[in-house]
Every structure is written in structure tokens, then in C-alpha cells.
Specification:
Largest sheet: 8 strands, antiparallel
Radius of gyration: 30 Å
Helix content: 25-40%
Shape: elongated
Oligomer: single chain
Order of helices and strands: EEEEEEEHHHHEEEEEHHHHEEH
Strand content: 25-35%
């Protein structure tokens, strides 16, 4: 409980009322089911976490700055000293979310301490398409820039071709070029680091920005002549003025992050010379050794499958790539989601010298915290999970087929 301010107890209308105005700035109520699995191993050794789910409804008040309320007709009469809060809006309902465990394969792959610096093998294989890319790119740009008088279906095909060539041709080629430049600069330092961590626990923790997001949508807004959405200023009519604007919006935020601990073992040097062993590591780090993932990526249309599903992540996790063996002591993906209505309200209130504008914000909604095992294998392919960018690519593919 926190004290917002105090009434002047000497007013006749305040007789018998407590002078303090107290409020809980954060009100929380748990929503079942609550799941928390204890995963302590033999010997009380902590394994890094376990499946967890906690949902709660909340109301959060963000008060205004302090102000002394006085009657405009009696500026020496002090009514109230303290802060204002906005009235709580209706609770929002949690927006639909994909299963948190579906992020596991991709995050597991990103977190692996024994992954290649780049995929040079597939980059070289894709150079066979460079001549046709140049020709198609020139034709697409020329047609997009000069579409006057052409039928609508042909114009849509030109735009779709240009979009696909950019996203799956030129941008990957640019990325591979930059990746090769960076990889050759990092080779020596990466091999040294791999040798230092060989067989030792390696912790990885990072925020997954690709799956994290924030959004805001205004639902209603308006103005009132009197202070109707602030408390306790709304109870002092002689200190009020207008207009007093307010807005109601729907806010949502999603934060996804990964935490895990890995151990790996590099290939034994054995009878190999140091130069031969180093050459083997360089080939593995540059992605020049055959793996199930590289064979899959060389197949036609595999880029489209991988764009909407995570087949490539599963195949990458099947193979240790750089190391001979890779294990995870623990690997978890966490998500914190919030959906809430936000009421922003302001008012003109008299402080004895002038009318001052004070503002307050109150949120009311649902918060969900989840943790699940980040399995290296698992598939996700749901239309409702496609991002706007993926939907745009799919539209380009359909547009390339023309209007039927």
C-alpha cells in the first residue's frame, strides 16, 4: 500500500474522513493453472530450470507528479496535497501465441558454440545461378520502372519477380560476401577459442529479437469538461478546468530469450599433422564439408520450405558441424507476454497560482511467463504464425503465377 497524498481534514465536507489517500500501485491476481517443475538433480545440483507457466491479471498505476489542489475562488484554501491516478480500464484478454517450445530448434542452433562461421559450400553452389540472376534482375527492374500500358497481371508478375529476386537472390549474395570477409578475419581467434572451451561447460544466454515484439493500437479517445478519469482530483470540483483529454489503447509486448549450457568435443588430432588438423577445422568453420543440411539446401525450393518452416534448423541440429560431439546440459526458451488496456488521462487542476496540467497512466491486462525445454528437434508450420514479411513473400509467389 502506498500513500498518494493527504486531504485537508479541516474542511467541513472532510469531517470523519481519513486524511490519507492510500492505493496499491500494482494489483496482481494469479490465474490457474500454475506450473513449476522442480528439476534439482541428485546431490542438489541445479539443472538450470524446468517447465514453468505463470499467468496473472494485473492493474498497474503510474501516478502523476504531486500537486496541491486549491479552490479557484478560495486560493488560500488547501484541499489536497499529492499525486493523481487514472481510473482502471477494463482488463484486456491475452492475444493468441504460438507454442513457446516451437522456437527451440532455431534458438538451439543459434546458441550452439560449435557452429560454422558461414556456409561457403552452399554459397559456391548457388553461384551457378548468378548469370540468370543478372539477366532477370535487369529485366525486372526495367519492366517495373516502365509498366505503362501493360496489362495488370503482367505488372503484378514483374513486381513479384523483382521482390523474389531481391530477397532470395541479391540479398543472400551480399550477405555471403560480407560473411566470407568476416569469417576469414575470425578464423584464428575462433579456433583458439574452440580449443580453450573443448570439453568444458559453455553457457549461452541471449534475447531472441526475431520473436520479440511490441505493438500499440488506439481504441478510443475524447475530452471531458470535468475531471472524470483522475482520482482524487475528480472529487474537487472547484479546482477543475478543461478540456481534459484521454485515450484508451490496446498494448501488447512479447519478449523471448534463451538460456543453456553446452559441452563439445573437437576431433582428435591423432596422427594428423597440425597443419592438416587446422585445415580440417577451417573447412568445417567455413561450411565446406558435406552435411545433411547442405544437401538439403542444395535441393530446389528448399529455401521456400525453410522460409515458412524450420526444416533447416532440425537438419542443422542433427549434425554437430564443427565438433565431433555436442551435448546440452540444459537448454530452455523463455517468453514473457503482456496484453493490456492503457488509459492515459490528463486534467487541468488549480494549485493556487495557475491551472496546471497533470497526467497519469493506468494499465489493466494479463501477463504470462513461460519456460519450456528448447528441443533441438521440432517442426512448426502454422498459417497464423506467419509474420507480415513472410506473408508478403508468399503473396509475391502467388503474384508470380499471375491472376486466374
Amino acid at each position: 500500500m502506498e500513500t498518494l497524498g493527504r486531504w485537508n481534514p479541516n474542511w467541513p465536507e472532510e469531517k470523519g474522513r481519513s486524511s490519507k489517500v492510500d492505493i496499491l500501485l500494482n494489483v496482481e491476481e494469479f490465474v490457474p493453472p500454475f506450473i513449476s517443475v522442480d528439476h534439482r538433480r541428485t546431490g542438489n545440483k541445479w539443472s538450470g530450470g524446468g517447465p514453468f507457466r505463470s499467468e496473472k491479471r494485473f492493474v498497474r498505476y503510474t501516478p502523476s507528479d504531486p500537486i496541491t489542489l486549491r479552490a479557484a475562488s478560495f486560493p488560500d484554501a488547501r484541499y489536497y496535497d499529492g499525486r493523481q491516478v487514472a481510473h482502471a480500464p477494463p482488463h484486456a484478454v491475452m492475444l493468441p501465441q504460438p507454442d513457446v517450445g516451437a522456437f527451440g530448434p532455431e534458438l538451439y542452433r543459434q546458441a550452439s558454440p560449435a557452429k560454422p562461421l558461414m556456409d561457403l559450400g552452399n554459397a559456391i553452389f548457388e553461384l551457378k545461378d548468378l548469370p540468370s540472376m543478372v539477366k532477370q534482375g535487369y529485366t525486372s527492374v526495367r519492366r517495373v520502372l516502365d509498366n505503362r500500358g501493360r496489362p495488370l497481371d503482367l505488372q503484378l508478375k514483374d513486381v513479384a519477380n523483382f521482390q523474389l529476386a531481391t530477397n532470395f537472390g541479391w540479398l543472400p549474395l551480399l550477405s555471403d560476401t560480407i560473411g566470407l570477409y568476416n569469417a576469414q578475419r575470425q578464423l584464428a581467434a575462433t579456433i583458439a577459442q574452440l580449443l580453450r572451451d573443448n570439453g568444458r561447460p559453455v553457457r549461452r544466454s541471449f534475447r531472441a529479437d526475431r520473436f520479440s515484439s511490441k505493438s500499440s493500437k488506439e481504441l478510443e479517445s475524447g475530452e471531458t469538461a470535468y475531471v472524470e478519469r483522475l482520482y482524487p482530483g475528480g472529487g474537487v470540483t472547484q479546482a477543475q478546468s478543461g478540456p481534459n483529454p484521454w485515450t484508451l489503447s490496446l498494448e501488447s509486448s512479447v519478449k523471448v530469450w534463451f538460456s543453456g549450457q553446452f559441452r563439445y568435443w573437437l576431433p582428435e588430432q591423432g596422427h594428423m599433422t597440425e597443419n592438416r588438423w587446422t585445415g580440417l577445422m577451417i573447412r568445417r568453420l567455413l561450411g565446406l564439408t558435406p552435411t545433411p543440411l547442405r544437401i538439403y539446401k542444395a535441393m530446389p525450393w528448399s529455401w521456400l520450405i525453410d522460409w515458412f518452416a524450420n526444416v533447416g534448423d532440425n537438419l542443422a541440429n542433427l549434425n554437430t558441424n564443427v565438433a565431433e560431439r555436442l551435448i546440452s546440459d540444459y537448454a530452455y526458451v523463455m517468453r514473457h507476454s503482456e496484453t493490456f488496456h492503457r488509459l492515459r488521462a490528463s486534467a487541468l487542476l488549480f494549485d493556487g497560482r495557475a491551472y496546471k496540467r497533470v497526467s497519469a497512466v493506468t494499465d489493466a491486462g494479463v501477463s504470462l511467463k513461460e519456460r519450456d525445454e528448447a528441443s533441438p528437434f521440432g517442426f512448426r508450420l502454422k498459417d497464423g504464425d506467419l509474420s507480415p514479411y513472410q506473408q508478403m513473400i508468399l503473396s509475391s509467389l502467388l503474384g508470380k503465377r499471375g491472376i486466374r
